[in-house]
Amino acid sequence: MVDWSGGNDTGPAPRADAIWACVARDGRADEPVYLRNRRVAEDWLAALFEAEREAGRRVLAGFDFPFGYPSGFAEAITGQPNPFALWNWLQERIEDSPKTNNRFDLAGEINRRFGGQGPFWFNGLKRDIDGLPRRKTDYKNPFPERREAETRAKGAFSCWQLGGTGAVGSQVLMGLPVLARLRARYDAAVWPFEPLDKLVAFVEIWPSLTLGAAPEGRIKDAWQVAEIARAVSSLDPKKLDGILAVDQPEEGWIFGLGFEDDLRAAAAQPPRLSNSCFALPPGVHWTPVREALDLLNARISPVTRTTRCPVADATGHVVAEDVVAPRSNPPLPNTAVDGYGFAGGRGEGVHCLPLAEGRAAAGDRPGALHRGTAVRVLTGAALPEGVDTVVLQEDVTLQDGQIAFRGPIKPGANTRAAGEDVAAGDIALQQGTRVGAAEAALLAAVGVREVEVRERLRVAVISTGAELIEPGEAAAPGQIFDANRPMLLEVIRRLGHVPVDLGIVPDDRMALSDRLDQAATEADLILTSGGASSGDEDHVSALLKQAGAMALWRIAIKPGRPLALGVWSGVPVFGLPGNPVAAMTCTLVFARPAMARLAGEPWREPQGFEVPAGFAKNKKPGRSEFLRARLRDGRAEVFASEGSGRISGLSWAEGFVELPHEAMEIRPGTLVRYIPFGSFGL
Ligand code: AMP
Ligand code: MG
């Protein structure tokens, strides 16, 4: 996407109102590029088109100026109602160099053909130009003032105005000649005049159609091109087709006009991860678990979209921003018990108070009380004015319109202060909290109606291996049932994410590549199991490597051979080991906190407990070990076999014993760290 400029080169330092461009692919934008003048821009575009053509990729290039003039102008100038005739006519006449150009003179020349007062106006030069009015007051336009698209786009400028804030006229005159040359050179198709069946297509964009003000400190043009580029490249292909289905063969059209909400929704999608996001520092060999977790935490950020929803629909979602309490809980001081309310505490001894008429129950509007009297109050009632202390009904005798009770009683006893739980204006729920039962109660209590939440994280699960068949199918010798997929899908569901079952893929690179493509469109994270090491049939790691987005993390952990971490079309991939026990361990230890983070929750590691061992083991240094374990009689016992194919041991276990990276000699009674599966959220 390109933000064009009709002005001259003012130097190498990036600034507003120059030309800015930004390339995006798969919903991810590169850094915006500053192009100091039109020659630099034309060369840069040519190099881009060539490189993309070389790579076999198509380019949709957007430029922020009209591709045509109001109806009738092209024919009046060239004899044909054809926008390209006008492009070429301008291309032959516009003289452009970084420091000077002839646009105002050419505009004057055109105006003189039509009586010398229009269609163009505004002169940016000191010298007068015959036929080119400086102001709109002296102006007469023989053509329509606006194109049809501009009558629909609120705030769009007329292409006849050659200068002044927001004007676009100079960009058209100085842009169309460049596009005419690039179109010829790269056989580009121009929208909406031609079918877009070429490798390069040009579309007319207008960033202000959907974008508001740039964030503080950003150059507006640079920010806008990056936003638009990212939005357009994240559009659903069907949406894109809909936006492009326009019939306006002479004047042209603005991309996205009438589809502003779709463009905004696309822009609101969070950026995708970069290919290098899991790269490890050079020279790393075996990464300790602790370091691996810290690295992962540093590399990952939330990827799910935010949306507003009524509190009733918020459960299961992660809160996207801090939720401020609109009302205090409790909203007014009230009584915590059934009893009698009065003012102030009382010392030792017996106290009598006359009982006032009536009573205060939950839901009653608070009334007022005479000093020196008591009033009947029921649990939850707002305290009447003048009451700050309540005595329990069980501690009171009632006679002749009087209550009697024994002191001492402290001032404020048995009451709740307004806002003692949450005060209006306090943060009730912090960003990143998943809304469960308790949070639903809290949001309701403080009067929140709608919350900004994140969509749930969609996690795709793919099993890889030529030997795998669906559970229940007839098994030939050598085949095994896919055990990982049912396990992983259930873990994902338990953790509050949305599992996306993408089946089994045999050890076939093309098939796996297709399945990963599908996963990248349907999910925010992809978990594969099997094929993650560097053997002949390890196609997950081979494909990720081919895509230039692969890091093999050799994590010093048992069980769990290497973990292949990569990015496929902007979507993170966790290549888990094939052995079910290793797959489960790596999922709980590494994928779980990563999923939480991607879903917008804080990074969180499971709570472990120091308990005496019920077993003996000499642990070697150099890697962490996760033993299948359970608590019996206050001691951690471990599964008889450490073999990572023993799925029965996973079911036997109720948690892990985590042994540290260092050596450790364990005897019965030695304290070890036990992590119940519940600590992982299972
Ligand atoms: P791999 O990582 O592909 O070399 O697989 C390691 C071991 O795990 C092999 O014995 C595989 O047969 C086994 N395995 C791989 N995927 C699964 C699965 N989905 N269910 C059960 N076992 C598997
Ligand atoms: Mg395999």
Compact summary:
By secondary structure, the protein is α/β, with parallel strands linked by helices. 26% of the residues lie in helices and 24% in strands. It folds into five domains: 1-101 and 164-269; 306-328 and 421-454, Molybdopterin biosynthesis moea protein, domain 2, CATH 3.90.105.10; 334-416, Molybdopterin biosynthesis moeA protein, domain 3; 458-598, Molybdenum Cofactor Biosythetic Enzyme, Chain A, CATH 3.40.980; 609-680, Beta-clip.
Structure commentary:
By secondary structure, the chain is an alpha/beta fold. The chain has five domains: 1-101 and 164-269; 306-328 and 421-454, Molybdopterin biosynthesis moea protein, domain 2; 334-416, Molybdopterin biosynthesis moeA protein, domain 3, CATH 2.170.190.11; 458-598, MoaB/Mog-like domain (Molybdenum Cofactor Biosythetic Enzyme, Chain A, 3-Layer(aba) Sandwich), CATH 3.40.980; 609-680, Beta-clip, CATH 2.40.340. It contains 16 helices and 38 strands. Strands 9, 29, 32, 34, 35, 36 and 38 form a seven-stranded mixed β-sheet that branches. Helix 7 packs across helix 9, helix 10 packs parallel to helix 15 and helix 12 runs parallel beside helix 15. It is flat. The site of magnesium ion (MG) has 5 residues, from loops.
Topology at a glance:
Elements: E1 2-3, E2 19-21, E3 24-25, E4 28-29, E5 33-35, H1 38-54, E6 59-63, H2 73-78, H3 83-93, H4 103-113, H5 148-152, H6 169-186, E7 189-190, E8 200-204, H7 220-234, H8 237-244, H9 260-267, E9 287-288, H10 289-299, E10 306-310, E11 318-319, E12 323-324, E13 334-335, E14 339-342, E15 346-360, E16 374-377, E17 389-392, E18 397-399, E19 402-409, E20 415-416, E21 427-429, H11 437-445, E22 450-454, E23 458-464, E24 468-469, E25 480-481, H12 484-494, E26 498-505, H13 509-522, E27 525-529, H14 539-546, E28 550-553, E29 555-558, E30 563-568, E31 571-576, H15 580-598, E32 609-612, E33 617-619, E34 624-632, E35 635-638, H16 647-652, E36 655-659, E37 664-666, E38 671-676
Helix pairs in contact: 1-6, 3-6, 7-9, 10-15, 12-15
The chain binds adenosine monophosphate and magnesium ion.
